[in-house]
Design brief:
With 512 residues, this protein is an all-alpha fold. The protein has helices at residues 5-22, 28-35, 39-67, 69-88, 93-121, 125-156, 160-163, 165-179, 193-216, 221-243, 257-274, 277-287, 292-313, 323-339, 353-366, 370-376, 383-419, 425-433, 437-443, 448-480, 488-493. The two termini are 25 Å apart.
Length: 512
């Protein structure tokens, strides 16, 4: 057991940061009731965390390579623990969102270093075993998130989902100090601070604009200003990256159509498979009156199906072109989302289960090979940036996907309320989307039928958008993705990122 203690220390942090992506979903209605939040605030509880992860993953990987991966992992654990405490004690929605952003910063430092720490610690057959176990922990975190969130919320309240991180972080820090050795690549290149800043501003203002569109409308001044800032920041990012000697993300990679298609697919996978779960949780608890535990059980089939496929079939997915399981997985995710469009007024929650199972099979099929598929279309010395880009686009897809689907959701609820003759439909739609259905129905019980129809109508549209997007991404991958040709192909397909040589002869770092 002794050789595996470093893996335990690394997996504890990985499990904690990935659980916090999904554990919040079933706690959103209790958070809304406790803090009196709006729907936009609830979105930011999830998006703030995902955006911080997406914005900082690549630059924290560079910092770790230079300053020491163990050191940055410990720093990330510390930031994550302190910000988890701040989340658990948050007196307002604004304080909770700010603490979630800080949590994402700590999570990025941890996530960017875990794979590199494993690669530096284990060699030979043990390295393959270590990465296999680490991947299983990733899947287990997603599987445990909804149910664990429901159990903690129902037993001790929503604040417990954040406070539970404290003892886990303490154990992870103690183990890391005791058994994990320091490693770095000894790089001395400049950090791309300008690139990281402009990327963060572009992604943050884009999501803010999309959320604002759902709350205020597309023509509202805050929406227009935010989207204009996003466009300007994106343009600045492109200019900065083109001029940088050591860019955070080499934009020349996007000239490779296979790489571009996989990055789009990574974003769409997160958006289509996971972004709607927060909206489903609001329907289950605020309209149907389910407890947090039962709401977590409804979402559990997706996670369990994903974990089962990853664990049982994962070893067989790497034979042949890894683009095939990616395309197949996205097709299953799209099919699963469309299967859930059967939801309607009076539907029981279990009507979603078949679609969730099919979508979960797709997640389990595509996720384990996404990095392999990316490495297969790049030369091996690009392995570090390729793996970091996959994780970045997946988190960005979750944040942008929730913002887009949230806007679609609110708009469809408003249109349903309008057709039902409800006055101030836009304002009421915002209240309902923010988990305010119990209060609305308590004050206006005659609105029960129209509210009962509005929520499923919103979900139906969300599932349709998610399903079509996933099917389109599946076609994109199937048509465009081809393994790199030439002598680099075998090395790239083998996922040789821990030891692949760069042009300068140094190992290419693995980040997340």
């Amino acid at each position: 057991m002794r050789p595996w203690w470093p893996l335990v220390a690394i997996c504890l942090g990985t499990f904690m940061l990935l659980v916090d992506v999904t554990i919040v979903n079933v706690a959103l209605p209790p958070i809304a009731a406790s803090l009196g939040t709006s729907f936009s605030s609830l979105q930011w509880v999830i998006d703030g965390y995902a955006l911080a992860l997406a914005a900082l993953l690549m630059i924290t990987g560079t910092v770790a390579d230079r300053c020491g991966r163990r050191r940055l992992y410990l720093a990330g654990l510390g930031v994550f623990a302190v910000s988890s405490l701040a989340c658990g004690l948050a007196p307002s929605a604004g304080a909770l969102v700010a603490a979630r952003v800080a949590q994402g910063c700590g999570g990025a430092a941890m996530f960017a270093t875990t794979a590199a720490l494993i690669a530096a610690t284990y060699h030979g057959p043990r390295r393959g075993t270590a990465f296999g176990l680490w991947g299983a922990v990733n899947g287990l975190a997603a599987a445990c998130g909804p149910l664990l969130g429901g159990l903690l919320t129902e037993a001790w309240g929503w604040r417990a989902i954040f406070l539970v991180n404290l003892p886990v972080a303490v154990v992870a820090v103690a183990l890391t100090l005791a058994v994990v050795t320091e490693s770095s690549s000894g790089g001395t290149g400049r950090l791309d601070v300008a690139g990281a800043t402009s990327f963060t501003l572009a992604s943050g203002t884009l999501v803010w604009g999309l959320v604002s569109a759902g709350e205020r409308g597309w023509g509202a001044t805050p929406t227009v200003v935010a989207l204009a800032l996003a466009a300007v920041a994106l343009a600045v990012f492109v200019v900065v990256e083109h001029r940088s000697d050591a860019p955070m993300l080499d934009l020349a990679l996007f000239a490779n159509r296979s790489f571009t298609a996989l990055m789009v697919a990574a974003a769409v996978l997160s958006a289509s498979a996971f972004a709607h779960l927060a909206l489903v949780s609001l329907w289950l608890q605020s309209v149907l009156g389910l407890s947090p535990i039962r709401a977590g059980l409804v979402a559990l089939p997706l996670s369990l199906a994903s974990f089962t496929v990853s664990a049982v079939a994962g070893r067989f997915l790497h034979s042949g072109s890894p683009a095939r399981p990616v395309a197949g997985g996205l097709a299953l995710i799209g099919t699963g989302a469309l299967l859930m469009t059967v939801v309607g007024a009076g539907s029981a929650p279990w009507i979603l289960v078949p679609g969730l199972v099919v979508a979960g099979l797709g997640v389990g099929l595509a996720t384990p090979v996404f990095v392999s598929a990316t490495l297969a279309v790049l030369p091996p010395w690009r392995a570090g940036v390729g793996s970091a880009a996959v994780n970045t686009f997946r988190q960005l897809g979750l944040a942008v996907g929730l913002a887009v689907l949230g806007t679609v959701f609110t708009g469809r609820i408003a249109s349903t309320l309008t057709s039902g003759g409800v006055p101030d439909a836009d304002g009421l739609a915002t209240v309902l989307a923010g988990g305010g259905a119990p209060g609305v129905l308590a004050g206006h019980p005659t609105l029960g039928p129209v509210v009962g129809a509005a929520f499923p109508a919103g979900l139906d549209t969300v599932f349709t958008v998610a399903g079509v997007a996933a099917l389109a991404a599946a076609v994109l991958v199937a048509v465009l993705v081809r393994p790199s040709a030439g002598p680099d192909r075998d090395a790239a397909e083998s996922g040789a990122s821990p030891s692949a040589a760069s042009p300068a002869g140094r190992p290419a770092p693995v980040r997340g």
